[in-house]
Amino acid sequence: MQLVKTGPKRYEDYRELMDIETGLQLEYYAKRLSGKRIAMVNATSYGGGVAEILHSLVPLVRDLGLEIDWWVLEGSNEFFTVTKIIHNCLQGQGETLTPEARALYLRYNEQNAAAIKDWDYDFVVIHDPQPAALIRHRNDGGRAKWIWRCHIDTSTPDPECWDFIYQYIKDYDACIFTMSDFVKENESLPGLTIFTPSIDPLSPKNRALEKEKVEEIVSRFGVDVGRPLITQISRFDPWKDPLGVIDVYRIVKKDFPSVQLALVGSMATDDPEGWDYLYRTLRKAGEDYDIKVVTNVNGVSGLEVNAFQSASSVVIQKSIREGFGLTVSEALWKRVPVVGGNIGGIRHQIDDGINGYLVETVEECADRVLTLLRNATLAAEMGEAGREKVRQNFLITTNILNYLRLFDSLHGQEEAIKQR
Predict the structure, then answer these.
(1) What is the pTM of this model?
(2) If you ran DSSP here, which 8-state letter would residue 17 be given?
(3) How many Cβ atoms from other residues are within 10 Å of residue 372's Cβ?
(4) Domain 2-198+395-413 has CATH 3.40.250.10
(5) Kind and range of the H or E element at 332?
(6) d(Cα 222, Cα 364) in Å, to the nearest integer?
(7) Which residue in 213, 279, 313, 378 is deepest, having the highest Cβ count within 10 Å?
(8) Mean pLDDT over residues 144-164, rounded?
(9) Is 234 within 8 Å of 319 (Cβ atoms)?
């Protein structure tokens, strides 16, 4: 395992964006947990929402006065191919997890656990299925509280795959899901807790940019800033349906020929399948020069994503399955209305007809995009509503508060047991 280094962040910089009550509670729980040590563990330090959250959450928790480390799994391409199969199976896609694949998964979990000689932590948060089996190799003497944070929809998983992962999940002290709907029906999970992920409003991806800067950045990628742009920001993944987004664009273009489409994504180390889907997307785009397909490989970082979202008339998140979809909140924070798949965590962020639209089909998505392109006043009103929705519900400070409350609750249970 590798220890991730993060840049500094100042909690004080976030005060004006929070409600007073949120700030008071954050400081209260930080004092109660003073001296406790926290570990966050996930599969990659870049590419994807979990890594993005941790790049902000970890330094902010430190600035609140708590000790926190962030560890990332080390694994081969073969290992991450297996964990992608597990990810897909848990979201309901029928794939076979062979005995060989299971053995490979367990071997890498054991090797990564051995890399940390001393689990000297009070709270260990394991993100998603890739490192779930680490708990079987803990060497903390039972001192730490272990928490499994699931960012995906496991409501209808492949039964065999779920049984394989559940044998490790049941050993945790608590499990966090984004929505209660994502929890397998009638499943007994320890310390079940529900809260959403979040965005960092002051990160390069979300801070306010001058109009001139936005235009200069997107122009580098061939966007004509004098014409309307629709954008989807996501991994190249079948669940995100980039091919369907191209179908939406082609319908819209028939009635709105000046429109452009940008598909912007990150290629993550824990997603080998992403390259195949990127190539499929490029083949479908063909020689339409109004479709811009760009990734972190050709110069896209958080700043460029910010510029694409800020330059867009409409942002699409046409997911077929979605844990949460942070890109929805990112766009809403920039006052851009979003047309999203009526699925998963997207439904928590978009109030249909208020700050965007929820859709089921390509045709419905195209119709809603056209509505917003034709009515700038409506789009602006939805954008304002979207920003306030995010400010109240989906900022990084609220996410930290939810973690600290859970840690305090688990610590309180431990103290109660000791006093018996």
Answers:
(1) 0.86
(2) G
(3) 24
(4) no
(5) helix 326-333
(6) 28
(7) 313
(8) 93
(9) yes
DSSP state of 5: P
Place of tokens 């065999």: 160
**The residue count for the chain:** 420
Which residues are within 8 A (CB) of 82 and not within 5 positions of it... i.e. 6 or more apart? 97, 101, 104, 105
- The beta-carbon contacts of 249-253 under 8 Å, at least 24 apart in sequence, are 249/291, 251/362, 251/363, 251/366, 252/366, 252/369, 252/370, 252/373, 253/290
Neighbours of 162 (CB within 10 A): 18
Name the 3-class secondary structure at 339.
Answer: strand
Of 3.40.140.10, 3.30.930.10, 3.50.50.60, 3.40.50.2000, the CATH number of 211-393 is 3.40.50.2000
Which pLDDT tens digit goes with each residue over 20-42?
A: 999 999 999 999 999 999 999 99
Residue 155 DSSP symbol? S
Max Cα distance, the chain (Å): 72
Q: Among residues of the chain, what percentage have pLDDT more than 70?
A: 97
- Tell me how far apart the alpha carbons of residues 246 and 360 are, in angstroms, rounded to a whole number: 15
Integer-rounded Cα radius of gyration of the chain:
21
Which residues belong to CATH 3.40.50.2000 in the chain?
A: 2-198+395-413, 211-393
Tell me which residue has tokens 């994503």: 305
